[in-house]
């Protein structure tokens, strides 16, 4: 789970490098009146969503379903959740590319990724993190994504080394399961039992929770970053127009469609 979700998002640091130079070209083209920022933003975000879906499918289908043989009953849900997760870091990378110094933007993205990984719930329970650092485990999307994907993958499996039992019939039965003879350690027979056992140490794993709630947290992060990205992009293009011709300067409250080409 860690290697499936964690390191992939770090590759978005390359996007900071590419978007930095792309942004310089766009400023020049907008300043020269080749097109308005509005259509570019719309096409960029549409293409961004399509590419995140394709990347989520390519990252998940071969290693998770073909090589590791996870059940495909939740394949659509997994693809959509993973695509939203990739979209969150893709949008963050584009936002970091608006900084004056490209290397600082790349370092800031790595810092965001590292904190998202550190406070995701993999290493320490969220309740054991002191405020205000605990807020990072709620705001950043990696922990929420891991919780949902673990529920959709591990929660659908059945594991060996254990059997279903009745706690009233056997003293060795705990949580509705017991280890088979000769097996020293087991975490459960069903995926729900395994997640419940792991939850005693890490709150990243949970057998019963509202997926929509954690998905909403990820969407809030995506929307917040996207709004900051749009605002920063509009301000950057407007500044480029003002530097070209001060008479063409527009109020920040004026709609994008009012900009002349």
Protein model, in words:
By secondary structure, the protein is mainly α. The chain has one domain (2-157, 210-258). The protein is 61% helix and 2% strand. The protein contains nine helices and two strands, in the order αααααααββαα. The chain has helices spanning 2-10, 13-31, 37-67, 75-96, 102-118, 134-139, 142-153, 191-199, 211-244, and strands spanning 162-164, 177-179. Strands 1-2 form a two-stranded antiparallel sheet. Helix 2 (13-31) crosses helix 5 (102-118). The longest helix is centred in the C-terminal third of the chain and has 34 residues, at 211-244. The model is unreliable at 249-261 (pLDDT under 50).
Structural topology:
Layout: H1 2-10, H2 13-31, H3 37-67, H4 75-96, H5 102-118, H6 134-139, H7 142-153, E1 162-164, E2 177-179, H8 191-199, H9 211-244
Antiparallel strand pairs: 1-2
Helix pairs in contact: 1-4, 2-4, 2-5, 2-9, 3-4, 4-5, 4-7, 4-9, 7-9
Beta-strand share of residues:
under 5%
Total count of helical runs of at least 4 residues = 9
Q: How much is the radius of gyration in Å?
A: 23 Å
Cα distance spanning the termini: 49 Å
Mean pLDDT: 82
Strand order of the largest sheet: 1-2
Q: Tally of extended strands? A: 2
Order of helices and strands: HHHHHHHEEHH
In terms of per-residue confidence, which ranges show pLDDT below 50 for 5 or more consecutive residues? 249-261
Q: Which percent bin holds the helix content?
A: 55-70%
Query: Could you describe the largest sheet, including whether it forms a barrel?
Result: 2 strands, antiparallel
Overall, the morphology is: elongated
Q: What is the domain total for the residues?
A: 1
Q: Indicate the structural class.
A: mainly alpha
């Amino acid at each position: 789970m860690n290697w499936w979700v964690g390191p992939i998002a770090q590759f978005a640091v390359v996007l900071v490098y590419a978007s930095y130079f792309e942004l310089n070209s766009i400023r020049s083209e907008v300043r020269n009146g080749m097109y308005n920022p509005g259509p570019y933003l719309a096409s960029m975000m549409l293409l961004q969503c399509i590419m995140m879906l394709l990347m989520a499918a390519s990252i998940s289908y071969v290693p998770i379903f073909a090589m590791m043989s996870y059940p495909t009953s939740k394949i659509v849900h997994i693809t959509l959740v993973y695509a939203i997760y990739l979209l969150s870091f893709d949008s963050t990378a584009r936002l970091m590319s608006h900084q004056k110094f490209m290397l600082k933007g790349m370092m800031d993205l790595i810092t965001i990724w590292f904190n998202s990984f550190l406070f995701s719930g993999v290493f320490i329970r969220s309740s054991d993190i002191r405020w205000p650092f605990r807020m990072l485990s709620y705001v950043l999307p990696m922990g929420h994504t891991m919780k949902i994907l673990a529920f959709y993958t591990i929660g659908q499996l059945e594991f060996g080394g254990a059997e279903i039992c009745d706690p009233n019939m056997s003293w060795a039965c705990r949580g509705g399961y017991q280890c088979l003879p000769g097996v020293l350690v087991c975490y459960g027979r069903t995926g729900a039992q395994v997640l419940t056992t792991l939850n005693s140490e890490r709150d990243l794993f949970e057998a019963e929770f509202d997926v929509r709630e954690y998905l909403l947290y990820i969407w809030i992060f995506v929307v917040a970053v996207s709004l900051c990205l749009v605002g920063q992009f509009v301000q950057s293009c407007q500044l480029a127009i003002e530097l070209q011709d001060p008479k063409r300067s527009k109020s920040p409250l004026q709609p994008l469609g009012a900009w002349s080409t």
